[in-house]
Amino acid sequence: MVTLPSDKEAFIAHYDQSKDRLPGNNLAWLNEIRAKNIALFNDIGLPTAKTELWKFTSLNPLKKQAFSAPETSEPAANDELPRLMDSASSVRLVFIDGNYSDALSDSTLPTGVTMESLAAVLDNGNSDLNQERLSRPRAEEQPLVALNTALMADGYILSISKDVSLEKTIEILHLGSGKAESTHHTRNIISVGSSSKATIIEHNADHGENAYFSNAATDISVNENATLHHYRVQASNKSAFLVSSTEVEVGKGATYDSFLLNTGARLARSEINVSLAAENSACHLNGTYMGTDDQHCDITTRVDHKTPHTTCDEVIKGVLAGRARGVFQGKIIVHEQAQKTVGNQSHRAMLLSDRAEVDVKPELEIFADDVICSHGCTSGQIDEDALFYLRSRGLSQEQAQSLLVNAFLADAVEAVQNEDLKDLFLVRISDWLENNPNKPA
Amino acid sequence: MLEIKNLHAEVDGKSILQGIDLNINKGEVHAIMGPNGSGKSTLANVLAGRDDYEVTEGGIFFDGKDISELEPEERAGEGIFLAFQYPVEIPGVTNTTFLKEALNAQRRYRGEEELDGMEFVKMIRGKTKELGIKDDMLKRAVNVGFSGGEKKRNDILQMAVLNPKLAVLDETDSGLDIDALKVVAEGVNKLRAENNAILVITHYQRLLNYIVPDQVHVLANGKIRRSGGKELALELEEKGYADYSGEAA
Ligand SMILES: Nc1ncnc2c1ncn2[C@@H]1O[C@H](COP(=O)(O)OP(=O)(O)O)[C@@H](O)[C@H]1O
Ligand SMILES: [Mg+2]
User: Fold this and answer.
1) Which domain of life is it from (chain A) (predicted)?
2) Helix or strand or coil: residue A410?
3) Following CA atoms A4, A7, A9, A13 in sequence, which dihedral angle do they give, to the nearest 10 degrees?
């Protein structure tokens, strides 16, 4: 059998090489968790086509690429760091190759916000961070989360106290420095105190075009009557592998509002699981993705309605050119006691080339009887009649296509309430259209 | 201005136009009438350059230039405008954005200065006022949720903004009640001028009461079977198309 450079064994070797220098290596309970999770990963291995949640996303391109063990060394300062929001309306935290950089991050956080780096917390060993917060309920189905738990080297622990309404957006930059073959297993925790409101925008960007592997796991709790707007701009270079798993717990009367914009990565897989276990909890899982060349973008969501009167809205739109592939898997589970659930899901993909492909798997599992649920998935080519109509008025083929694709995607951005961010997403969409070959192949 | 010579065209290998000859001069209004399926919309689409239609013989000359190989946007730039039988809805693109992009694309094609935002707004306000169209129509997505009448009025607005040399109106009267039809016809008549021409395509004579043609042509089975003055339309109204194709109208 041919061994690929980054098969299961390679990652297990990363663990062996780095376990004595990972943060918190003097904490017995942590070493135990890491050991347990690498054993779990060893049992399951990397996801394959047979793994239930990975049917449509193959990690073969990742396996063919060599990667090295996580490094905990201080990141080098970089000249230009991308920033999405201006400094008057945001505070920015900076992670380089998965490691927090205190020096490059804004020093003052808004009142009511605390941020600690995971590495610091584990090394100091004096936090209330415990086993509970680092174990996932379904780790058996999430081998990459198990790998993350075994190898996590840094991340953020962000807490927003109760009764604060943040005016400034918290921007978190995840920058790839350009170092080849690097792997980042970041572990993040966000908690929003009751009756608070916060906006967090995460930005994946890079210096250089080298391949790296980012495997993030984020646990979020939005407490009673709080609202978290969680946005992501995934604009990594087109060699990067960007895998993330986000687990959200939404409290009574609280809202988790997310929007994902993906233009980057060779392979991007974003898994979001939301538990609506308290009355009047709500979530919005919206997004747009754009792919070209051999990019692969996977959005996999699961929403568990566990109690009466919970709501979920999900609108995702994608545009694929070249040989790009899109995957949307959306599961909505309405548990028996979750009467009066409202769940609406839609995914629409536009294929700009004959070789682009999309796989979708919407799943509704409803065990309650008094619910309003809908889902719809469509995919197709650009509307030829509309193209001809626009061209007959003087627009070139490219202009007409661009206008139609833009309108198609912009519709999904309507869900974003923050006007500045809405504009930012719209600009990203037009930039993508301008810079990417968008002629039908 | 427009010279169509022995034009043959096919769709999906099916021959539809079988030798059309037609000349339209500056300042003239021509009408093409014919039974359903006779090839009227095909002719309109071929003039506008739709690529599912293949010209197999003959040619189309516009101001002396052979345009049969030009892209649709190039023909638009040359001054050809097609009001579609079924105007297309474009969700998410407002009329203003669409008109501005279209006008500036045509101006670029002709080597003219583009209009900036201010100039465009001023121009378009003038046009809506002239045609009695409410400004809120500009903010709406192109044809989305428009009634049949609104769609056709939107065509007239586009025509007024783009100011084509040749406007081809394909069944502009279909689906309109008499009041809407009058409004649309009035719009078209406002745009009649010495330097441009109009080709009205219709199945029924009634539109021609309001847009009075200089010449009427009967198209049947892919060929022009007869041409005459405006009285020909009245004759067709009375007798139908049975004489021309051996099939009922
Ligand atoms: N895109 C197409 N594909 C196949 N056949 C077509 C297409 N468009 C028109 N036709 C056929 O060509 C003939 C003429 O159609 P059309 O030009 O629409 O007629 P009219 O507008 O006079 O009613 C009809 O037989 C019609 O079925
Ligand atoms: Mg027709």
Assistant:
1) Bacteria
2) helix
3) 90
Residue B207 lies in a domain: yes
How many structural domains comprise chain B? 1
Residue A216: closest CA among A291, A268, A288: A268
Q: Is residue B138 part of a domain?
A: yes
- The answer to whether A391 contacts B73, with C-beta atoms less than 8 Å apart, is yes
Going by alpha carbons, the residue nearest to atom 6 of ligand 1 is: B11
Q: Nearest by CB to A407, from B71, B91, B105: name it.
A: B91
- Name every residue whose Cβ is closer than 8 Å to that of residue A185 and which is 6 or more positions away in sequence: A70, A98, A147, A148, A150, A151, A152, A153, A215, A216, A217
ipTM, 2 dp: 0.95
Q: In this complex, do B162 and A394 lie within 8 Å of one another by their Cβ atoms? A: yes
Decide if A403 touches B, using CB distance below 8 A: yes
Residue B101: which domain range? Answer: 2-244
CATH number at B201 reads 3.40.50.300
Q: Which of A388, A395, A399 sits opposite B50 (nearest CB)?
A: A388
Whether B92 and A385 lie within 8 Å, measured CB to CB: no
* Residue owning the nearest CA to atom 13 of ligand 1: B37
From first to last of its 249 residues, chain B has per-residue pLDDT tens of 999 999 999 999 999 999 999 999 999 999 999 998 999 999 999 999 999 999 999 999 999 999 999 999 999 999 999 999 999 999 999 999 999 999 999 999 999 999 999 999 999 999 999 888 888 999 999 999 999 889 988 999 999 999 999 999 999 888 888 888 888 898 889 888 899 999 999 988 889 999 999 999 999 999 999 999 989 988 888 888 877 765 443
Q: B209-226: b or e for each residue (b if 16 or more CB lie within 10 Å)?
A: ebbebebbbbbbbbbbee
Measured between beta carbons, the chain A residues lying within 8 angstroms of B77 are 394
Nearest residue, CB atoms, A407 vs list B72, B93, B162? B93
Q: What is the position in ligand 1's atom list of the atom closest to the CA of B35?
A: 22
Is residue B179 assigned to a domain?
yes
Q: Measuring from atom 11 of ligand 1, which residue has the nearest CA?
A: B37
State the pLDDT at residue B177.
86
| CA-wise closest residue to A152 among A112, A173, A183, A128 | A183
The predicted model scores a pTM of 0.91
Q: Cα distance from B67 to chain A (closest Cα, Å)?
A: 14
Give the position, in ligand 1's atom list, of the atom nearest the Cα of B38: 22
